[in-house]
Amino acid sequence: MTSSLPWFSGFPLYLAPMAGVSDKIFRQFCKERGADVLVTEFVSAEGVFRRNDRTREYLDFDECERPIGVQLFGGNAEHMAEATKHVIDWVRPDFIDLNFGCPVNKVVAKNGGSALLKDCPTLAAVAEAVVRAAAPVPVTAKIRIGWDAESVNAPRVARILDETGIRAVAVHGRTRAQSYSGEADWNVIGEVVEAVSIPVIGNGDLTSGADVIRRRAETGIAGAMIGRAAMSAPWIFSQVKHYFATGEDLTSPSLEEKWELIRRHCQLAVEEWGREDQAMRSMRARLMAYSKGFPNSKALREKFQHVSCLAEIDEIASQHLAPQGAAV
Fold first, then answer.
1. How distant is the alpha carbon of residue 54 from its chain centre?
2. What pTM, to 2 d.p., does this model score?
3. Torsion angles phi and psi, residue 255, rounded to 5
4. What are phi and psi for residue 45, nearest 5 degrees?
5. Handedness of CA 40, 20, 204, 248 (dihedral sign)
6. Which active-site residues does the annotation give?
7. pLDDT for 89-112, tens place per residue?
């Protein structure tokens, strides 16, 4: 394991870490479809520090997912450092990623995620402690552009992270106050690129190859991170790469191919959970995301809200794919 990030010899496409979404199954779907770098769902450093078994489950990944990073969140520098050592000892990730961007109240209330954008001394202490504890494994970070519109400070935060030894920074172009509303501010992401010497990965409102090409030209980002667009279309990574290579849009998979992916995801979830009813309940939100862009998506979402077994998925698919499906 080296301290470098060799994937920046090109222009890497990252799958954004998303709680409840970017689990092992979904990460591998995206990897198969062109994602270059993966990151786990965010993991509580306190949970790792206390060796919580449930927390440790979030660290699970397969070798085919490399390069992959484990994303940690927390505001206690000492505990973050110890958690980092445990993670590296347990699963040997390619890098550690620090979450300084999560806007969720339960994370912010514990001085984690984007709360540290308001507390740069603590942010710096956490980053320095983790970099020391992880060496020679590289450490990266993800941030938002600021806490709110009156405190946009991403360039300053990125410089602090650069000085602590962070090797790359991903920037989501929204403030914590925005959550996922409004538009991402790519002008600020461009300012971050100018402010630091480390690679900057741009994130926010990237839904096509044309979007990525345009933002790369405008800002000079070293890589792109795709999150919500991948939730409904994990094949977006291959579409972006096709656009990079040809300047043309790659046709989306057929309806039949999309249903095959949905069925496979459900089947793998059942195998992972070991309980069909629990697995299918856990899949409902994922199925709702997949339904985006489907014919009769409203009726489809209503059915997905109540699905409880694989047989129901097969029945819904057969109805949706039937010639009379437009009337279902």
1. 20
2. 0.93
3. -60, -40
4. -65, -35
5. positive
6. 102
7. 999 999 999 999 888 888 887 778
